[in-house]
């Protein structure tokens, strides 16, 4: 399979007065088309920083990121904005839905921002809402939806532009375990049915076990990874790997 994303030598430093904080220390990572990758590690290990760099939301201090064979560091601001809008889907922990729009309108928002006529994409929007189990509630606004339903709207929105890669930052962090499991089932289903690459930051071993591969960060470096064996990843193996990072 081909790599949709490659990052080489990623370093990220933050300057706090005279103090230099190294968030990432030379990370190399490759992600294949259609692969579901979970990123784990202790608090402060660099997980969210890595996700923001991969999505072009921040710039590395050194190193390069190639998305679809395009070097993000070489892009002008307008080209990078268009790439984020058309090739990358984002799922955030806080949903980021507009309360005055219906579920269907929130899903369509990336199309609106790209000056596309949503009426021409009504079938696609309905298909995504059906895929996440919310077609019958497409006319409801966020205040009328539960937290899990809002997150499923956010997942549908992330896929509406048919992005090549979706980046999810703690997508189940605000949900109870049952609702979180439903959201992960939906995320995995959409990933596999649409052959879209997913990179998900999570602190939850059960969530990570949905992935094809789990990458572990510690002190800004990749220190370990687990791949599927016989078609799945054992939660116990993820928990054991996390415990080793804490030793």
Number of discrete helical segments = 8
Tally of discrete structural domains: 1
CATH topology: Rossmann fold
- Do you know the CATH architecture? 3-Layer(aba) Sandwich
Secondary-structure-based class equals alpha/beta
Q: Which strand-content bin applies to the residues?
A: 25-35%
User: Strand sequence of the main sheet, in spatial order?
Assistant: 6-7-8-3-9-10
The main sheet comes to:
6 strands, mixed
CATH class: Alpha Beta
Q: How would you describe the oligomerization state of the chains in this entry? A: single chain
| Distance, first to last CA | 36 Å
Q: What's the name of the CATH homologous superfamily?
A: P-loop containing nucleotide triphosphate hydrolases
- The helix-strand sequence is EEEHEEHEHHHEHEHEEH
Helix content: 25-40%
Radius of gyration: 18 Å
**Structural shape:** globular
Number of E-type strands: 10
Question: If you had to describe this structure to a student in words, what would you say it looks like?
Answer:
With 247 residues, the protein is α/β, with parallel strands linked by helices. 35% of the residues lie in helices and 28% in strands. It has eight helices and ten strands. β7, α6 and β8 form a beta-alpha-beta unit. The mean pLDDT is 90.
């Amino acid at each position: 399979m081909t790599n949709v994303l490659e990052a080489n030598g990623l370093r990220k430093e933050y300057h706090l007065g005279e103090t230099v904080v190294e968030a990432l220390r030379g990370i190399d990572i490759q992600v294949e088309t259609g692969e579901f990758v979970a990123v784990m590690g202790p608090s402060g290990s660099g997980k969210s920083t890595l996700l923001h760099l991969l999505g072009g939301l921040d710039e590395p201090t050194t190193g390069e990121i190639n998305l679809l064979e395009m070097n993000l560091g070489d892009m002008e601001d307008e080209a990078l904005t268009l790439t984020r809008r058309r090739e990358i889907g984002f799922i955030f922990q806080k949903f980021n839905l507009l309360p005055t729009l219906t579920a269907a309108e929130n899903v369509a928002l990336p199309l609106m921002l790209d000056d596309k006529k949503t009426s021409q994409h009504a079938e696609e929007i309905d298909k995504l809402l059906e895929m996440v189990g919310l077609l019958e509630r497409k006319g409801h606004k966020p205040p009328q939806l539960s937290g899990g339903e809002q997150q499923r709207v956010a997942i549908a929105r992330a896929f509406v532009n048919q992005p090549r890669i979706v980046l999810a930052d703690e997508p189940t962090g605000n949900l109870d375990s049952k609702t979180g499991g439903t959201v992960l089932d939906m995320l995995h289903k959409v990933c596999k049915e649409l052959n879209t690459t997913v990179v998900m930051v999570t602190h939850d071993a059960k969530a990570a076990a949905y992935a094809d591969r789990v990458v572990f960060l510690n002190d800004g470096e990749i220190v370990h990874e687990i791949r599927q064996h016989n078609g799945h990843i054992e939660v116990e193996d993820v928990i054991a790997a996390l415990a080793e990072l804490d030793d």
